[in-house]
């Protein structure tokens, strides 16, 4: 077991949550309602302009992470969209300061996106680890109660479904689980596929991979290089069919 309490930086959207803008949610409300009634889909929480679903077992996963690692959240969305989600993930306000930091879009390196079509979405955001490593306060708090002569640069892992976001970082400082989606709507929003997911559960892929990191005595990048993270296959749930028509004819 490594004596070093490493830093795990988590993305939000596509890793811990699935969110849908209210305009799409309202448009597809009948489809969602049908799936809630059939118990194929849990109801989301309403957070600002979004319907938000928390990933199965996410709160227990965070609890476990906080026990074994320093944990931070870094999302490239706006601050006001992150705060209510962090509150939902860690409902106990005494728990929240246990996060080493929770950062938003303002902490990202920004570039113009030359291929942007949507005028409200013309920027690209990058999570540069140098921003973390060069923050004195983060280093100081991370170093508390740790073995001597260690460097945060050797013991930081970003977990983000988006590879582009970590473009500027040293190699093997991140892993990229498949973007988590609780469901997918078809192109004209008339049908829905719902997926099973156990990645954050106790015997799930991510926790197992992180347990290996806990045992590892080298640096994070050495571990990532030697143990590529591999997602389990994507599996759809067997949807409870809507039998209201047939039962009505009996
Ligand atoms: Mg993401």
Automatic annotation (TrEMBL):
Record-linked PANTHER family: DULLARD PROTEIN PHOSPHATASE
The protein's name in its UniProt record: Mitochondrial import inner membrane translocase subunit TIM50
Keyword Transit peptide: yes
Residues covered by the FCP1 homology domain: 1-213
InterPro entries: FCP1_dom (IPR004274), HAD-like_sf (IPR036412), HAD_sf (IPR023214), TIM50 (IPR050365)
Sequence similarity: Belongs to the TIM50 family.
SUPFAM superfamilies hit by this protein: HAD-like
Subcellular location: Mitochondrion inner membrane
Alphabetical keyword list: Mitochondrion, Protein transport, Transit peptide, Translocation, Transport
Organism of origin: Rotaria sordida
Membrane topology: Single-pass membrane protein
């Amino acid at each position: 077991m490594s004596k070093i309490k490493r830093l795990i930086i988590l993305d939000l959207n596509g890793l811990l949550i699935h969110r849908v803008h209210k305009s799409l949610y309202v448009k597809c409300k009948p489809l969602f309602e049908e799936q809630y009634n059939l118990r194929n889909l849990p109801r989301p929480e309403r957070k600002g302009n979004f319907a938000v679903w928390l990933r199965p077992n996410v709160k227990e996963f965070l609890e476990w992470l906080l026990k074994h690692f320093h944990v931070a959240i870094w999302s490239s969305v706006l601050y006001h969209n992150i705060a209510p989600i962090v509150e939902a993930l860690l409902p106990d306000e005494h728990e929240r300061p246990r996060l080493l930091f929770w950062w938003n879009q303002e902490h990202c390196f920004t570039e113009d996106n030359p291929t942007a079509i949507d005028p409200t979405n013309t920027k690209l955001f990058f999570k540069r680890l140098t921003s973390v490593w060069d923050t004195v306060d983060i280093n100081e708090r991370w170093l508390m109660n740790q073995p001597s002569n260690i460097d945060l640069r050797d013991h930081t892992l970003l977990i983000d479904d988006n590879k582009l976001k970590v473009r500027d970082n040293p190699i093997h400082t991140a892993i990229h689980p498949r973007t988590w989606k609780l469901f997918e709507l078809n192109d004209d929003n008339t049908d829905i596929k719902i997926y099973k997911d156990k990645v954050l559960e106790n015997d799930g892929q991510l926790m197992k991979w992180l347990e290996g990191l806990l045992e590892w005595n080298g640096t994070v990048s050495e571990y990532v290089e030697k143990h590529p993270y591999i997602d389990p296959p994507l599996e759809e749930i067997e949807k409870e069919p809507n039998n209201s028509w047939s039962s009505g004819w009996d």
